[in-house]
Amino acid sequence: MNLKQMVGIEAATHVTDGMIVGLGTGSTAYYLVEEIGRRIAEEGLSITGVTTSKATEKQALGLNIPLKSIDEVPYVDITVDGADEISSDYQGIKGGGAALLFEKIVASNSKKNIWIVDESKMVETLGKFPLPIEVIPYGSQQLLKKFEEKGLNPKLRLTADNERLKTDSDNYIIDLHMETIPNNKVKQLASWLDTLTGVVEHGLFLDIVDTVIIGKGTSPETINVSR
Ligand SMILES: O=C[C@H](O)[C@H](O)[C@H](O)COP(=O)(O)O
């Protein structure tokens, strides 16, 4: 079993009958969704899923997981999602798969958030992984210029065919290749990004995660984050 599968299956043990479950996106959350599908089919688990991307929606429908949209539920009991980087103070970068907007909406309406990662995602400071910024196409060149002027090394994300990547909401992604974001500067950066017109959302997920499940060796490590 690989580390992503290990943490996906472990996270599924936090899901019980009757829950409304946020289903994350990416190659790690994939295994969580598979395990929930298996438990529904084999053990009669009864849950309602809220997906965070079109890709996860497709996977969940294929597994006969009952789904509702975030607007059809009063709240989400628990959301399980991957992450691109988690710092030593448990702040995160997400959006490597371009799903940050729906992921943040679902996460911020969840009573509990679990992140599942292999140990390579645990870092001292964020920023080695480029920080994804979802922007409206109109005016995106102006934002690129602004980020450039600030020395944030922005790059418009392209598809494998060299087209501008479009998110599930038909926006673009600008990745900021900053190399490092000191832990004591992360909130300041997030607040500044929040002020920019044309920025829909950014990939800094701050003070959101409650539990981190890390895949390492032969068994996962679970860390409950106290804030
Ligand atoms: O937009 C994508 C999400 O934030 C993913 O959860 C994140 O990129 C981690 O994905 P993976 O588990 O494939 O590394």
From TrEMBL:
Per the record, what are the reactions this protein catalyses?
aldehydo-D-ribose 5-phosphate = D-ribulose 5-phosphate
- Name the Gene Ontology molecular function terms of this record: ribose-5-phosphate isomerase activity
Q: Which top-rank group of organisms is this from? A: Bacteria
Checking Pfam families in the record gives: Rib_5-P_isom_A
Q: Give the EC number.
A: 5.3.1.6
- Supply the Gene3D superfamilies for this chain: 3.30.70.260, 3.40.50.1360
Name of the protein this chain belongs to: Ribose-5-phosphate isomerase A
